Each structure stands twice: as C-alpha cells, then as structure tokens.
C-alpha cells in the first residue's frame, strides 16, 4: 500500500466523460459487514434522528443498515461536528447514506431556498492506514475517482495536535449525485482493505485520549505470550503503551467480529491498535498492541487484555 501524502487535494478541472469504472466490490465483498463514517453538525444530527428517533428508524428500516451517532457533546477532534456511522452490507450502507445525504440536502434547500449552492461538502472519517489505498500509486486512484464521480476530493494531513488520533478526513465536494458516486468508489476501495473492518468496532467517542502527559520508554518487553510491555515517547500530550501479545492470542483480544476489543475500548476509554500480521516486536513473535489514553485508561485496558489472554491460556492447558 502506498504511503499517503501529508495532504492530497484534487478536484475536477474539466468535465471529462466517465472512463471505465474503477473496480467495484465483488459479490462476496458486498455481503461482508463494513461501514462508513462521516461528520454532521449537531443541528443536522437532530434532523437525521427525527422526532422521537422516527427518521433514523425509518432510514434503518428502508435500508437494512445500522445507523449510529456520537452523543451531542462528542465531536470529532478539532471540530464541532458529530460522527455518524453507517454499518451493514455494502448496498445497505449506500442506500442509507443516500437517504441521509438527501435528507440533509433537502433541509438546506428549505432553509436557503434558491440561494443554496448545489455543490455541498461531506467529510468522511477514514483511518490513516487506509488513505494510501484511496490515493493510489502516484495519485492514480484518487484521480480516477475524481474523474468518475466529478466530485472534488481532499484528504486532510494527519493532525499532529491530537496524538493517538489515527483517523483523517476525506472531504467530498459536489452535488448529491457526485458525492454519492464518490462514496461508492471510496467504500469499494476500503472493502478491499482487510484491516479497515477493525475500525468498525472503535468507539464513536474520541474521549479524552489527546491531552494526557507522556513518559519515557523503559524497553521492557518479553515474548512469553502474556503481553510484555514498553512505553512509547512520541509526544508530550499522550500516554501510549505497547504490549506484546502472542500471535495465537490476538484472536482472543479482538473477539468475534471485534467484540472483545470494542468492549475493552469502551469500558476503559483507551484506544487500542493491533499491528498487522507479521509485524512483531523486534526479536519476538509477539504482535504489537498499542494502548493510548490516560494512565488510568491504559492500566484498565491492559488488565482486561491480560485477563482475556490468561483465560485463553487456562483453557489451552
């Protein structure tokens, strides 16, 4: 996968005819559970929810997708916007997303009448590790998406003000049809990334993981499968600890469909990231499990992970 540029900005300069479509998801990929996240203002979130939750319930019934929103005081870092996550099968997500964007577009037209700009913006939340696939080699993929959809596409630089924030914003500018097409193309690419599905289980709230102090590394880690640990020293605003977990125990930490890791993150308030397969702590066969947050959150998450591993080890003996 190509390393994402610090910032990639592009938009259609002319109106070329659509060339052959970029690869669409296979039938198997369309059936796999996946998700997409995007930002909405607090007022727009209320419009999506509807009176007594009537609108969001209707959208879920029509599409078959699940629609979740962060709480009204839980914003994406550096913004005053809430996060919407739509999850389910590929076609279900696309249907629900069209319903939501159409609703928001109609609300704007009601408020602003004929003065509304037909080219609006929607901001997707995408893991930094998945942005390289959207950009492609030499920007080839994102250029193809722009030509096909006619939407402007901008990928934000990784925000260095929020240590531990592993997500970036992908801004789509265009008409409703152009935005919908761009989302189709981007989600098609994301479904090819086997690690993208992990982010579906991350809490919608970003909590307070971005303002704690940091401390120096102690370098103490082991390869006994019980999770040796060492501390990272990246920035002064965040605690980050990496523990080593034997490859065969990673499944226990993640859980079926990511259930365990989601529960640990929600219960502790920490953010948990697991290294790719084959990416081990040097000199060991242990995968890296990085826990970021306050010291209390880290300690609680680590204890819960160790408990999962210990239970699994007992069952094996």
From TrEMBL:
Extract one GO molecular function annotation from the record: RNA binding
Q: Where is the sequence biased in composition, kind Polar residues? A: 8-24
What are the record keywords, sorted? Repeat, RNA-binding
Q: What is the lineage of its organism?
A: Eukaryota, Viridiplantae, Streptophyta, Embryophyta, Tracheophyta
Q: Which residues form the K Homology domain?
A: 32-105, 118-191, 237-310
What PROSITE patterns does the entry give?
KH_TYPE_1 (PS50084)
Stretches for region Disordered: 1-34
Output this protein's name: K Homology domain-containing protein
Superkingdom to which the source organism belongs: Eukaryota
- Classification via InterPro entries: KH_dom, KH_dom_type_1, KH_dom_type_1_sf
């Amino acid at each position: 996968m190509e390393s994402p540029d610090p910032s990639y900005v592009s938009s259609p300069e002319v109106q070329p005819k659509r060339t052959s479509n970029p690869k669409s998801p296979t039938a198997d990929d369309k059936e796999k559970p996946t998700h997409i996240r995007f930002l909405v203002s607090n007022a727009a979130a209320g419009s999506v929810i509807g009176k007594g939750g009537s609108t969001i319930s209707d959208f879920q019934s029509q599409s078959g997708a699940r629609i979740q929103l962060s709480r009204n005081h839980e914003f994406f870092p550096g913004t005053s916007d809430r996060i919407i996550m739509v999850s389910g099968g590929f076609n279900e997500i696309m249907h629900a997303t069209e319903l939501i964007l159409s609703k928001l577009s109609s609300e704007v037209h009601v408020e602003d009448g004929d003065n509304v700009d037909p080219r609006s913006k929607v901001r997707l939340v995408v893991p930094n590790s998945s942005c390289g696939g959207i950009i492609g080699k030499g920007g080839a993929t994102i250029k193809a998406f722009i030509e096909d959809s006619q939407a402007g596409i901008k990928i934000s630089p990784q925000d260095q003000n929020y240590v531990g924030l592993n997500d970036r914003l992908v801004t789509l500018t265009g008409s409703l049809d152009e935005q919908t097409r761009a989302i189709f193309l981007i989600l098609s690419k994301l479904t090819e990334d086997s690690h993208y599905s992990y982010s579906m289980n991350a809490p919608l709230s970003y909590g307070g993981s971005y303002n704690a102090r940091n401390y120096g590394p102690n370098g103490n880690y082991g390869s006994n499968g019980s999770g040796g640990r060492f501390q990272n020293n990246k920035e002064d605003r965040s605690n980050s600890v990496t523990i080593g977990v034997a490859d065969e125990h990673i499944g226990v930490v993640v859980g079926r469909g990511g259930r365990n890791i989601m529960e640990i993150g929600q219960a502790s308030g920490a953010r948990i990231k697991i290294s790719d397969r084959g990416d081990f702590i040097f000199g060991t066969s242990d995968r890296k499990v990085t826990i970021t947050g306050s010291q209390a959150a880290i300690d609680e998450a680590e204890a819960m992970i160790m408990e999962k591993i210990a239970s699994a080890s007992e069952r094996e003996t």
